[in-house]
């Protein structure tokens, strides 16, 4: 039990440290939101009268002269209550609403894509590792090359060929804008259709990593005595591969998968940028470009909690699976 | 928006390269992407990146649409051509002799989209509301309005305010008293169901797109354009892709190979309008805390003469920029106000290196062994800040660096993030930076001068200037700007001496070293709709993000074949 208490305490401290960094890092950045609003309006021509500056300072409540310490305490209090504040770049929409609207898109897209590439990578990796030394080994460099190609380049090639040229997939967006978002077959079908190409790009670019890791673990487990024993017993080849070798080889990949699930929440900024996808990554970009502290902190908080949560789950699961990790030094 | 245009330059180059692949492939396949459902819908991309957040409050800085389309001003001021303001909700207006009272006659046949009649009371309510809520008062309106009767409003000012006219009449958007008077906080209300008098009303709103539809009861007749759809895309690069696929009908922003738009995007046309002066901003005023060689006017002049503008235009701006006046007025639009007393009518397009070096030498600079001028042991070296990713400006800066090296001025370009750059610009913590000067609400050089050259809009180094970033301060210019506020803009002869003073003083000290007049480029679908503005008929500044200008263009557009 002490093990679990220690783990929970550690994660609490990590959460506090992350929250504190979230608070200070954006405030160390140069620039302020009012300047950015002014510059944006200046580019639209027109209402950039110097009086506008005062109006926006009043509206956004910047320049309040509040001390950093009192801002910090009220920030922690608000975070504790789940009040993430008001976004400056989409004033006056609450940050929680923006995140609430964007998060499901990212979770579905990146979540499903990550799961698919994991399953695909593990299955292929196990098979390639089992048949090491055959022509199948060439799958490893082939997929790692795909992973090494800069992601935006790969995505743009697929867009140019599959969307622009052949017209198989829509060019950009999350759904057909003629439809109404909601739980109906038309809309869900459209969302899946629009999400296929972005998901495909993520799968193609990340499957290589899983494949390589799984294949190499597979190679070392097949050299273990228990595999030799199983073979000596005359068990079916496929049974040895799946039940004996792959089952043990997959452990490190499972840990890696749990951690990458945490990062799913952060979304893929580039995917969302290339496909104009309405997810959390594009919101994060928007927040950074506009010095929108509240939105940045809200998104960081969600990411932090997700990553810490995923790690905690992995830690606890590992303690169950492998009792050796529980022994305290 | 050209801010965004400059991001992801590498991606853009990749896209351009891929376009060739795509073209080859289309030759075999060929697909018609323009669906029948969108036949009469104008689909636009404003440059906004990311999803729409509902906000139709015309006084909110983060509003997504409304000015001109849903909510109307009293008059439309064409800020690119010197023409009479076009009536919208107003019929005519008249100033008293000293510019302290503005009488406006309103039209009597306008209705709000909920059926109620528009009256002078709504105008007074709107103006009173923004005076009571400083957070909504983006134009700095300081008048007192009274309704004379249902169709006449009188606005009094405490000081001569001729120059306030275009703001009050053209940039304040009228809202209905019966809908707004019960709002608890009108400055932060997002106005979910906007009720206006304008030619368009909200049809439907979704995060990825919202649509406006024609107002059948519009006072000047239902517009021929029935629907306008605003798409949310992630930036200019996706805007280009959508343009290529024929999914959008109008966007404002540069695309590669601008001169061949008609060939690369069949059915589309492009228009480039010179609007903002690109300049090297200098922190020029040592008295307000500026430091560096650029505080010496001889150095600024030497740079002015040493740069090769023709070369910069060709290498950095695809020849879309044009000549620039050293006196801070626009050459074409303000040609009647350009002072005859200026030493040079336009900044030289070709460099005059002899003049540049002579200016430096007579100011006490001597060429060192490394070919760089120096004075009092300090070399003539400056840093020049440019935003990382703004590829055209970066090219311009690199070109200038080489040109200036030839005359012995050493420039070090610094690419910084936009936030860092705008922070340095605001506080005056820079030596040189490249940016553009913007214009005001009406075709009048007064506004640009009052924004960027007046003592009232500057601040000491370390404090935010708003927006006189060069810290220029000149009593003669300040006096001329104050005097102009009290001269009827119709009386051009009385105004000219003040413009002469402003322009010659600016030419003498060039706190913003003029480079070129930058062009704003739009690409639009001329096959689907007719009635677009042209260079001969510039009835409004053509930029999709310009409000209320875009609404004037919607009013003139007709689906092709009608």
Automatic annotation (TrEMBL), chain A:
GO biological process: one example: transmembrane transport
Cross-referenced PROSITE patterns: ABC_TM1 (PS50928)
Topology versus the membrane: Multi-pass membrane protein
Entries under PANTHER family matching the protein: OLIGOPEPTIDE TRANSPORT SYSTEM PERMEASE PROTEIN
Family classification: Belongs to the binding-protein-dependent transport system permease family.
GO cellular component: plasma membrane
Transmembrane regions listed in the UniProt entry: 9-29, 105-130, 151-171, 191-212, 249-270, 299-321
InterPro entries linked to this entry: MetI-like, MetI-like_sf
Coiled-coil ranges (or none): none
Cellular location(s): Cell membrane; Membrane
Domain ABC transmembrane type-1 as annotated: residue spans: 103-318
Keywords carried by this UniProt record: Membrane, Transmembrane, Transmembrane helix, Transport
Primary location group: membrane
Name this polypeptide is given: Peptide/nickel transport system permease protein
Pfam families noted in UniProt: BPD_transp_1
From TrEMBL, chain B:
PROSITE patterns associated with the record: PROKAR_LIPOPROTEIN
A Pfam family: SBP_bac_5
InterPro entries given in the database record: Peptide/Ni-bd, SBP_5, SBP_5_dom
Record organism: Saccharothrix ecbatanensis
GO BP annotation list: peptide transport
Extent of the signal sequence: 1-27
CDD domains to which the protein is assigned, alphabetical: PBP2_TmCBP_oligosaccharides_like
Keywords: Signal
Start and end residues of each Solute-binding protein family domain: 84-456
Protein name, entry field: Peptide/nickel transport system substrate-binding protein
A GO molecular function held by the record: peptide transmembrane transporter activity
The UniProt record lists the keyword Signal: yes
GO CC list: ATP-binding cassette (ABC) transporter complex; periplasmic space
